[in-house]
From TrEMBL:
Subcellular location: Cytoplasm
Transmembrane segments: none
Single GO term (MF): homoserine O-succinyltransferase activity
Protein name: Homoserine O-succinyltransferase
E.C. numbers: 2.3.1.46
Keywords: Acyltransferase, Amino-acid biosynthesis, Cytoplasm, Methionine biosynthesis, Transferase
Organism listed in the record: Steroidobacter flavus
Self-association and partners: Homodimer.
Functional description taken from the UniProt entry: Transfers a succinyl group from succinyl-CoA to L-homoserine, forming succinyl-L-homoserine.
Short name of one Pfam family: Abhydrolase_1
Cross-referenced InterPro entries: AB_hydrolase_1, AB_hydrolase_fold, HAT_MetX-like
Length: 338
């Protein structure tokens, strides 16, 4: 296996787009004073790929001299998606905890946000930067939903989309899990314990991101006594992940974007741009059946790649080789999308 190159100096261009008018929202109403934080990394003369991830992801997609990107294990020079020939665009999602407009801590009246609203803001950024049509949108999880919404609404602005672990709608079982997570955060916030609620919600979410087989391998050991009671290995892991998340994110932003996932819905028959779908067999949140249904319903050229991974829904962060094969074919001008 080739060694992954170390971080090197790259051209970084970033800023915040401030809309001069209120943004009409997909579910009604409008949002004033909208800001969208964006970052472009790479050769200014190269074609642009927008890379969008889960609700915790943002504009810091790939490594820069001062920061490690959230997808830098997958996207970068010499990596699964070799960015040497592309410029990578990332944005902070509307309603999140980043530099784009989102709820403040303690705010409970921030409007509901749709994947279509995120697609509109991506379009505004492209217009602002005078980038022209994107070479591709590569979207995983929530970012894949946004890619589908963008392709449905703005087919002339993207040449192809690569959608990993995201379908045309949220599965009801996934909505069930996320609904409980949001209820935990809301209840805790009402009692002045928003961060603790977010900690527990994230711990529960982590149990849905990975596969039972991985947990069997990693956490089958015996419980140990902690502060006079038994604590299980998997419990320690989940709560530690919850601690890290609660220290970095705003509870109300988590609720906003979690709800946005469950509100997501597009009409696949209106998607005509070349589409590459990637499904993980062990994904508990996006069942293989939903990805196959999406493949059958997309009107344009479409391919579905299926692979197995211990990492379940989180495979888009881990499975370098499988994604390398998909990206190589999807971004090839001779890719056999049918």
């Amino acid at each position: 296996m080739n060694a992954v190159p170390e971080r090197t100096s790259v051209a970084v261009h970033e800023g915040v787009l401030e809309l001069d008018r209120a943004l009409p929202l997909h579910f009604g109403g409008e949002l004033k004073d909208v800001r969208v934080a964006w970052r472009l990394v790479g050769n200014p003369a190269a074609p642009v790929i927008a890379a969008l991830g889960g609700i915790s992801a943002g504009r810091a997609v790939v490594d820069t001299p001062n920061e490690k990107g959230w997808w830098s294990d997958i996207i970068g020079p010499g990596r699964a998606l070799d960015s040497s020939g592309y410029r990578i665009l990332g944005i902070d999602f509307l309603g999140g905890s980043g530099g784009s407009t989102g709820p403040r801590a303690g705010q409970n009246d921030f409007p509901s946000i749709a994947s279509q609203d995120q697609a509109e803001l991506l379009r505004r950024v492209l217009e602002h930067l005078k980038l022209g049509p994107l070479e591709a949108i590569v979207g995983a999880s929530y970012g894949g939903m946004v890619a589908l919404a963008f392709a449905e609404r703005f087919p002339d602005l993207v040449k192809r989309i690569v959608v990993i672990s995201a379908a045309h709608r949220s599965h009801p079982m996934s909505t069930a899990w996320r609904s409980v997570q949001r209820a935990v955060v809301r209840y805790a916030a009402q009692n002045g314990q928003g961060a603790e609620g977010l900690r527990l919600a994230r711990a529960l979410a982590m149990a849905t991101y990975r596969s039972p087989a991985e947990f069997e391998q990693r956490f089958a050991g015996p419980a140990t006594r902690v502060d006079g009671r038994f604590q299980f290995p998997v419990e320690s892991y989940l709560l530690s992940r919850g601690d890290a998340y609660a220290a970095a994110y705003i509870p109300e932003a988590f609720v906003c974007l979690s709800e946005s996932i469950d509100l997501h819905q597009v009409d696949p028959a209106r998607i005509r741009v070349p589409t590459w779908l990637v499904a993980v067999i062990e994904d508990q949140l996006v069942p293989l059946s939903d990805m196959r249904m999406l493949r059958q319903s997309v009107s344009g050229p479409v391919q579905l790649a299926e692979f197995s991974s211990l990492y379940g829904h989180d495979a888009f962060l881990k499975e370098t080789q499988a994604l390398h094969e998909v990206f190589t074919r999807a971004l090839s001008t001779t890719g056999d999308v049918k």
